[in-house]
Specification:
The structure holds two protein chains of two kinds. The relative contact order of chain A is 0.15. Chain A is mainly α. Helices cover 78% and strands 0% of the residues of chain A. Chain B is α/β, with parallel strands linked by helices. Chain B has eleven helices and 15 strands. In chain B, β12 and β13 form a beta hairpin. The longest helix of chain B is centred in the middle third of the chain and has 16 residues, at 168-183. Chain B is elongated and about 75 Å long. Mean pLDDT of chain B is 86; it is low at 309-319. Classes of the chains: A mainly alpha, B alpha/beta. The interface between A and B is medium-sized, with 28 and 31 residues.
Chain lengths: 261, 319
């Protein structure tokens, strides 16, 4: 545990001196938290007459008894929450890509592998160093969003949808599972990449399924609800197990020293 | 301290054919010895070091480091050995002190600040301890990498090209430091292309090109390859003297090279006085006398190119 802690300390003290990583980790939560608050605030004061005709028919059915303008707000919140879910994917990718490819380019991995640290400790340390900031940023941003939403005119019915099981499952369960997936995708991509930016860009492919859900909801093809979130969580558990296994295989000492280019 | 038996490493090529990087290496390095491991680029030196430090697994054979078996006691081996890799990457954005602290903690060093201070002072980096390593010169980085390899006080140290790319002053400092480590009784496995350095530092050298060609002390290798020779620098050389010297019963061979007389002897310490007396009696104007020493480079090149010890001198001779 002490060695894992040391690796996490090392990763944070090194990676957070990198401006690209710092911007990704710092700006995303701020933008994804403040932007919806501003838009909801503007919406609340300027278009109180919006109605459920502005949302896809499938979604309007979900709104039930709430008013048309509230239904529109819930719909918009849902879009922002899906964008919010990019954080647990994008932040770990940025950190892990710079951490692993950075070590490759500076040739600092071999001395690290020569220490008594086990492969599991090393992978856990690097993985946690990438995932923890993402999870904390997501949870912190969500907490601020939940607390600040009533202050920008979000009514109790809309606010209730924000803290509904759907988004609690999304933030508390799906978010961390996404981060684990993102870290392992970054490890796998980083084993072949020689430039952190390339590794980051390729790894960002994992955002695509999330974007499909986002556009699916906008198009009215699907509605994000607790059942869908549980299904996503179940799929992520399976994917995480597979990718952790693959990542761990690629992260063996011999593979790193002889096959990583 | 280091023992290998038929240690072999094969890699798979792109077309799945096995490529042998290290072939049946059998070697013993004694405790407290500085052992030079010499070979051309691509000979398998780094692969050998990686196997001996439990970074990669041998395909076959056995290696024991300080009583610990590679493959079975890998973590304990990594705790016991220190390694300076050929390109010693550091955490560029972190300070020298932070770099060493991280490794001290990973090695489980009991007094981390004390140990970090000890090696930063010892290698003359204490004043720059809070500076980012990215701002360090190559010599300073190399010193820091050596400090990192030593931070956990390893009994066995693997140094891969420790003075490569350093200016003469920094290289001398590193060599002196290796001498100090030797006097502390540490076992040092030194991979180097600097043959003069190997000659100065190593008790024994192994010449290696996928397989081990030979192991011996530089001095024994000289004698095995070239015998012992004494060179007499004369003001002028009378060819008749060559025959007289050759007739002496203890003389093995005589060569006249310009105004020099090169004489092969078994025991120059005992035979030189007789030889000098003979030459003086012949009226030979001796300017000075010295033992002819072939450079380790001569030995190395001959071994690498022929793979066997030859009897004929090779390369330039240095008296």
């Amino acid at each position: 545990m002490n060695r894992i802690q040391t690796i996490i300390d090392k990763e944070w003290s090194e990676v957070f001196k990198n401006r690209v990583v710092l911007l990704t980790v710092g700006i995303m939560p701020v933008v994804f938290t403040i932007m919806p608050l501003v838009i909801l605030g503007v919406m609340g004061s300027s278009i109180p007459g919006g109605d459920s005709a502005d949302v896809p028919p499938g979604f309007a059915q979900v709104c039930g008894a709430i008013s048309g303008s509230e239904c529109l707000q819930v719909f918009i919140i849902n879009q922002f929450m899906l964008m919010f879910m990019m954080m647990p994917l994008a932040i770990p990718v940025a950190i892990a890509a710079y951490s692993i490819v950075g070590e490759k380019t500076t040739r600092s991995l071999e001395p690290l592998l020569a220490t008594p640290v086990t492969t599991e400790e090393l992978l856990a340390g690097k993985g946690l160093a990438a995932a923890i900031p993402a999870i904390l940023a997501t949870w912190g941003g969500f907490l601020i969003f939940v607390l600040a939403a009533p202050l920008v005119g979000v009514g109790p019915a809309v606010h209730a949808s924000l803290v509904s099981p759907t988004w609690l499952i999304a933030i508390l369960v799906v978010g961390p599972l996404m981060s684990i997936l993102a870290v392992n995708v970054a490890v796998i991509v980083s084993s072949r990449a020689t430039d952190p930016r390339v590794a980051e860009q390729i790894s960002m492919v994992i955002i695509l399924p999330l974007l499909m859900i986002l556009f699916g909801q906008i198009a009215g093809v699907l509605v994000v609800n607790a059942r869908l979130m549980l299904l996503v969580a179940a799929v992520l558990v399976v994917l995480d197990i597979g990718f952790v296994y693959l990542g761990a295989r690629l992260f063996q000492r011999e593979a790193i020293l002889t096959r990583w280019k | 301290m280091i023992h290998t038996e038929s240690l072999t490493k094969q890699f798979k090529s792109k077309n799945k054919q096995p490529i042998t990087a290290v072939n049946s290496l059998t070697l013993d390095v004694r405790q407290g010895e500085v052992f030079g491991f010499l070979g051309p680029n691509g000979a398998g030196k780094t692969t050998t070091v990686r196997m001996l430090t439990s970074l990669i697994a041998p395909t076959s054979g056995r290696a024991v480091i300080n009583g610990l078996e590679v493959g079975r006691d890998n973590q304990a081996i990594r705790q016991t050995v220190g390694i300076l890799t050929e390109t010693p990457g550091m955490y560029e954005r972190l300070s020298a002190e932070r770099n060493l602290t991280i490794f001290a903690r990973l090695y489980g060093v009991p007094d981390v600040p004390g140990q970090v201070q000890k090696y930063l002072r010892m290698l003359g980096l204490w004043e720059r301890r809070f500076d980012e390593v990215g701002s360090f010169s190559k010599g300073m980085r190399q010193k820091l990498a050596i400090a990192r390899a030593l931070i956990h006080e390893p009994k066995v140290l693997f140094l891969d090209e420790p003075t490569s790319g350093l200016d003469p002053e920094a290289a001398k400092l590193v060599r002196d430091f290796i001498e100090d480590l030797k006097s502390e009784g540490r076992t040092i496995f030194l991979c180097t292309h600097n043959l003069d350095e190997a000659d100065r530092l190593c008790e024994r050298i192994g010449i290696f090109k996928t397989s081990l060609i030979t192991v011996d002390s530089p001095e024994n290798l000289r004698q095995r390859l070239y015998g012992r020779k004494v060179v007499f620098h004369l003001q002028q050389l009378d060819p008749a003297w060559v025959g007289v010297v050759r007739a002496l019963p203890f003389v093995k061979e005589v060569q006249a090279v310009e105004s020099r007389l090169v004489v092969g002897l078994d025991r120059p310490e005992e035979q030189n006085p007789v030889l000098i007396r003979t030459l003086v009696e012949l009226g030979a104007p001796i300017q000075f006398v010295g033992e002819l020493r072939h450079s380790l480079e001569d030995i190395y090149l001959q071994m690498i190119h022929t793979g066997i010890a030859a009897s004929q001198p090779a390369g330039e001779v240095h008296a």
